[in-house]
Amino acid sequence: MIKLFKTRKCFLLFIVLFMIPVILFCTISVRAEGSESDSNTAESIIKGKVINVISSNDADKEDKNVMEKQQKLKVEITEGKHDGEKVEITHTIQPSKPDNIEFKTGDELFLSISEDNSGKINEASVYQVVRQNQLLHLLIFFMISIILIGGIRGFKSLITLTITCLIIVKVFLPLILQGYNPIVVSTAVCIAITIISLIIVSGFNRKSAAAILGTSSGVIIAGIIAYVYINSARVSGVGTEDAQLLMDSLLKGTLNFKGILFGSILIGTLGAVMDISMSIASTMNELRENNPRISNGNIIKAGMSVGRDTIGTMTTTLVLAYISGTVFLVLGYMVSKSSFIDIINQDMIASDVIKTFASSIGLIFTIPITVFAYWILDKR
User: Which letter, b or e, does each residue of 157-190 get, where b requires 16 or more Cβ atoms within 10 Å of its Cβ?
Assistant: First the structure.
């Protein structure tokens, strides 16, 4: 037993040590591609490093209630044709702005620069903080945790998560940007992710088949309800700042924002629906394998019981996930003393209400559909 434990531990350690270089290689590749893309378009955003904080003091402001500071920084550029050059910039720290960061020596940042006709830098300012290294460390910690604790199942989950992200980034989003119908694309992508994920995790059997049918049906039901209420409530899909930014870009007039909202609802619903359908199918399958003589009625009863037990937590999960995205907006309306009726009639809030209830209804109907699907497959 101890020998077996050591063998598994060594195997998991090998997986971890194998995956870390893969992640690092992929990250370096992405960075290289990003740098090449930037150089082909315009060197307006470049990376630099603070080598000296020349001064740091309160800015002159008429309004003394506004806490604002200014830093004079000496920054060395670390990439591009200006690599090695040093520039001095004045950075204003404003609490109400995203870049309200006080820099210190050694900090990495991105600079926004402009050049004169001769190609020399005539102006530079702080664009953004370099955060990719911290995010990479967090990713590696996540992968190590899921593999060490989850074992082989955790490793399979990691594979499915990677495939899911690749499908969304490399298939779903590019097709949306190319003008394909977001409703068709998001539906196809959700079903594809469901099939691939559940087969990798559980293999091709009646348990995964029932979960696939339940998940696909639940997502489609959520989509139908979302489509009906997006149109009946006249939600535009452009109520958020992110959508407005996309609207103001070169893509203006070429995208179906209602369809994109529909797609986001399906993607958001997929995880919870897949989880509950697999839980139900796994329970029913476990009962059948452990007791082949168990009646169909008892199996159905067990499946429905698991579904009812998890429906509360899953619905709460969906509600909290969508509410968390509107906390700042709702707080803003509350500060301005807007009424409840005014708040819920805002485009963005209405969108999140539709997301929440459409997803929850899809999840609810997933339960009996998964139970029925397993019952049909079990009879064969």
Answer: bbebeeebeebbeeebeebbeeeeebbebbbebb
Residue 24 pLDDT grade (very low, low, confident, very high; cuts 50, 70, 90):
very low
- The residue-averaged pLDDT of 140-166 equals 89
Please give the Cα distance from 269 to 286 (Å, whole number): 26
Q: Is 141 buried (19+), middle (13-18) or exposed (0-12) by CB count in 10 A?
A: exposed
Phi-psi region of 227 (alpha: psi -120 to 50; beta: other; left: phi over 0): alpha
Domain boundaries, the chain: 2-132, 179-379
**What's the CATH architecture for 179-379?**
Up-down Bundle (1.20)
What is the pLDDT at residue 242? 64
Residue whose pair of structure tokens reads 């309160």 in the numeric block = 58
For the whole model, what pTM was predicted? 0.71
Q: How far apart are CA 104 and CA 194, in angstroms?
A: 47
The residue with greater pLDDT, 250 or 242, is 242
243-247-253-254 Cα dihedral, nearest 10 degrees: -60
